[in-house]
Amino acid sequence: MYIGIDLGGTNIAAGVINSEGKLLITDSIPTRNERDSKEIINDMIQLVETLIRNSGFKRTEFKAIGIGIPGIADDNTGNVVYCVNLNWENISLKEPMETSLQIPVFIGNDATVAGVAEYGIGKMKNYKNGIFLTLGTGVGSGVIIDGKAFTGSHGIGTEIGHMVVGDNFYDCNCGRNGCLETFASATALIKYTEKELNAGRKSTLQESIKTSKLDARMIFDAAKNGDELALESVDRLVKYLAIGISNLINIIDPEIFLLGGGVSKAGDFLLDKIRLEVENNKSFRKIDSGIIQLAELENDAGIIGAAMLGKISL
Amino acid sequence: MYIGIDLGGTNIAAGVINSEGKLLITDSIPTRNERDSKEIINDMIQLVETLIRNSGFKRTEFKAIGIGIPGIADDNTGNVVYCVNLNWENISLKEPMETSLQIPVFIGNDATVAGVAEYGIGKMKNYKNGIFLTLGTGVGSGVIIDGKAFTGSHGIGTEIGHMVVGDNFYDCNCGRNGCLETFASATALIKYTEKELNAGRKSTLQESIKTSKLDARMIFDAAKNGDELALESVDRLVKYLAIGISNLINIIDPEIFLLGGGVSKAGDFLLDKIRLEVENNKSFRKIDSGIIQLAELENDAGIIGAAMLGKISL
C-alpha cells in the first residue's frame, strides 16, 4: 500500500493506493494556508493516521508516503524549497513526517507528480521517456526519463514553464520576459485576448464579456465558431507552445508529450493545431520525434502520482 | 584498453586510452568524404587494426571502441541517422565494425563525446549532471545526466543549438528561426557584425577587414579594446547564450555548465559577462543553479571521449 497527499493552497487531499495504482480510499481537509507550516504538517500527519486507520491495513503494510507540492520540492534534502501558495521557503517536510509516521516519505512538485501518475497508470504507461505539460494558470511539467521522475540537481529542473521562447508584451511573474507560461497558459490566452478586446478589436467575445468574465473556454468556443480574434489568440498560443515542444524535442527528445490542465480541455481542436505546428517546427524532419497526446487522468492524478513517488522513486 | 575514433569531415583520428583515460598512442587518416560510406567504414576498421598492432596489447585486452560522429548517431540502433558533413543518412556503423573487429562498438555525437571526455577526465569529473556546450561554427552539446551520456529517445536529444530563444534576422540551417546557434556560435557573431559593418557602422573592424576575413577572434579582440560595435556583437551573443543557459537551468538543472569551442577562447572576458547575465536571467533567484566554467580539454577530447563511450555507456 502507498499513501499519496496532494497538498494544495486550498485543500489537502490524500488517499491510499494499492501496488496497481488503484485508489482505495480518500480523505481531505482544508489547508488553511495562513497558518504556520508546522501546523499544516501536523494536520497532514493526522490525515495519514486517519487514512491508515480507515483503510483496514496495518501500518507495516504501507511502503511509502508521497506528497505533491505546488512549488519546488527537493527530494534529496526533503525540503520544500519554495512554494508561493503556502508562503513556504526552505521548509523541512520529509523529516518531521517520517519521524512521526515511521514510513518513508517522498516529495515532489505537483506537475511532476501528475506526470508520475500518467507514467504509472495513464497514457505514458508504455513509455520510458515522456513529458507531461499542464497548461492551466501557469505551465507546469512532469518529466520522466528512463522510467524515473526527473527533477534536476537543485529541484528546479523541469520548470519548463519558465523556458524563454520569444518576446512577450508582458513580463512573467518570475521577472523574465518571454517564458513559455506567458504564451501557453490559460492566463496567457486570456491576457492576450483582453488586450486586443480593450484595443477595440471586433469579436463575438465583446458581447460575451458584458455578462461574464473572460475565460479560456469562452475563447476556445469562439475560436471553434470561427471568431477571428479568438482564432488569432489560440493560434498564438499554439505557435509558442509548438516552439516550446520543439525545443524540448531538441533537448530531451522524449517518446511522448502529454498535454493536461484546463487548456487541454479544448481537445482535438487544440491537439490537431499543435501537432501540425510542431511538425512545421521540426529541426530534423526526417527523424522521428515524440508523439503528442492529451493527458488522461483527472483530479485524482495528484493523489495517485504522489503515492507513486515511492514506487518509482525520484 | 579502449579505442576512440573521432570521425570528422576532413580527418579520421583515433587513439588508444587506458582505463584512467590516458591517451597512449594515436593515428589518423584523411576521411576523403566524397567516397561511399562502406569505404570510409573499411578505412576505420583498418585504422583500428593498425592501432591494435602498434599498441603492443592483445586484441582481447580491448574492452570497447567508441566513435564520435559530426551528426546524429543512435547508439540503440547503431546507425548514423544523419550526418551532413559525410552525406550519410541511416548508415549502419556499429554492426559492420563489430562484425569485423569483434570488439563492442559505441557511437555518439561529437559534442556528446567531448562532454563525455570532460566528464571522464576534465572539469566535469566531480559532477553527476553537467552540460557541455561547444560554441564553434554551430552550437553543439554533450549532456551528462546521472553519470551517463544523455541523448534522448531518437538520438536528437541534446541538439541544444536548435533550441529557439528569440527572433533572429536570418534563419537557421535547420529551417527554423531563432535557434541558439544563430545567436551564440562564432558564425552568428560574425554574421551580425558583418551585417552592421555592411550597414556602415563605425568600428575599428572596418580597417581590419580590409586585409583579413572577419573572424570571431578579431571581434573579441576589438571588444576587449572597447570597440562599440564589437562590444554590442559580443553582448548580443551573451544575451542569447544566457537565455539558453537559463532555459537549460529551468529544464535540466545541471550542477555545471562547461563552455568549449572556438568562442570560449575569449576566456574570462566572455565568462564574466555570461555569468552576470545568467544571474540576471534566473527565474528562481534564491535557489542555487549550475556553475559555469570554461571547458578544459583540447583537441584530443574527441578521441578520449569516444573511447570513454564504452566505459560510461550511452
Overall tally of structural domains of chain A: 2
CATH homologous superfamily caption of the largest domain in chain A: ATPase, nucleotide binding domain
The number of helices of chain A is: 10
**Pair with the most extensive interface?**
A-B, 50 and 50 residues
N→C terminal distance of chain A: 18 Å
The largest sheet of chain A is: 5 strands, mixed
Please provide the count of β strands of chain A.
13
Report the C-alpha radius of gyration of chain A, rounded: 20 Å
> Helix and strand string of chain A, N-terminal first?
EEEHEEEEHEHEEEHHHHHEHEH
Strand order of the largest sheet of chain A: 3-2-1-4-8
Shape of chain A: globular
Oligomer: homodimer
Residues in helix, % of chain A: 25-40%
Structural class of chain A: alpha/beta
Low-confidence stretches of chain A: none
Outline the structure in words.
The structure is a homodimer of 314-residue chains. Chain A has helices at residues 37-55, 94-101, 110-121, 181-184, 186-198, 205-208, 216-224, 228-251, 268-281, 301-312, and strands at 2-7, 11-17, 23-30, 64-69, 72-74, 79-83, 88-92, 105-109, 130-135, 139-145, 148-150, 256-260, 291-294. With 314 residues, chain A is α/β, with parallel strands linked by helices. The first copy, chain A, has two domains: 2-121, Nucleotidyltransferase, domain 5 (2-Layer Sandwich), CATH 3.30.420.40; 130-294, Nucleotidyltransferase, domain 5 (2-Layer Sandwich), CATH 3.30.420.40. In chain A, the strands form three sheets. In chain A, strands 3-2-1-4-8 form a five-stranded mixed β-sheet. In chain A, strands 11-10-9-12-13 form a five-stranded mixed β-sheet, sandwiched between helices. The longest helix of chain A has 24 residues, at 228-251. Chain A is globular. The model of chain A has no long low-confidence stretch (mean pLDDT 94). The interface between A and B is large, with 50 and 50 residues.
